[in-house]
Amino acid sequence: MDLGEFTGKIKEEFEEDYNMEDLNPDTHIKDMVWWSSMHMLVVIALIDSEYDVILTTDEIKKATTLRSLFEIVKAKK
Amino acid sequence: MAQLNIDNWKITGIAAAVPATVTENSEYKHLSPIERKLLIKTTGIERKHIANKNTTTSDLCEVAANQLLDKLEWDRDEIDILVFVSQSPDYYLPATAIILQNKLGLKSSCMAFDVGLGCSGYVYGLSIVAGLINSGNLRKALLLVGDVSSTTVSENDKSTYPLFGDAGTATAIERAEGHGGSFNLKSDGAGFETIIIRDGGIRNKVKPSSFDVKEISPGINRRDLDLELDGLEVFNFSITKVPKLIKETLEETKSTSEEYDYFVMHQANLLMNETIRRKLKFSKEQTPYSLKNYGNTSSASIPLTICSQLNTEMEQKKNKMLLCGFGVGLSWATLSIDCSPMVCLPVITV
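Output (structure tokens, whole complex):
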């Protein structure tokens, strides 16, 4: 798995309703105006179905960027 | 625990009642239009039925029970057991089941008691009634299950208000040689704060500060008398523990997902439930949903889904069913059962 593909899959989930130019691997996701816990649930479900990895709530809370989320997922595969 | 196999009982009929008033999530004023769209997409909940202030869970269950008993032509004096499963009883005390025993005109030798469970409550309730029936002397039972959860959520809490609808259901169970079902029941009290109403019990009695509205975060405003739900914890619990339990159930009953006609889950939210379905390789055809029109109806969600989505199928043929309730407690449970054709009423609107 690579970071570009990982970020791309997440962007696909939200590009219909939000401007994805602001979302890149090092964006602080919780600082984005539109980001909410519901978006995180969508990402968790995506990671589970695409990578067969389940994140703990601690891991989710620690992930501040898509890059840090990617690193956590990669380590668990 | 391992599988709990209970023999000599069957479900003879199911009915569900919902209040007439409907609220639409597309009109929920505390979310922007884009947020409402994402909410509906992730939860699958477009609308829910909401009780008015004079309608309790027991009222809805009473309507369902009366219509079911009339259709079954059961003599009310034949009913030996009444169990009421709810987290919204009529009173702190006495037990609501006893009030219903009187309202439904059941004999005084009918045992009647409450069970204080939510999302797992239907399966737990069936296990209790099945166990009593299997004991030998008791022939017929009513399991009344539901909640008016809408009365316990804050309208200004976007994490809970759009999710919960109200319903009351009645299931008729009777002794039947050669029938039965296989249960697996779990609990984890370490997760008790995952879904909780903090004040109003003995631990935190109602006090003036119970009524103070707290802003937890933007769009999440509630009192300690209102339902609190940790979405991330619930999600993680549901997509890990529930599939594990179902795999255990399939292994213990030596069955596969393909063998079941229907897999009816507690209706929590579409994203969560679809994650579970896909993990366990149940098809969409096997997995009915009532989320769209009724929301999360707590312990009523399994029987309500059966009545709203499968009532013809349940009446016309045998069905091999896997039922799974999971949530508040934390508590989760499965039932693997071969159902004979039964009375299954279309959803009643009160």
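Residues 38 and 44 of chain A are 10 Å apart (CA to CA).
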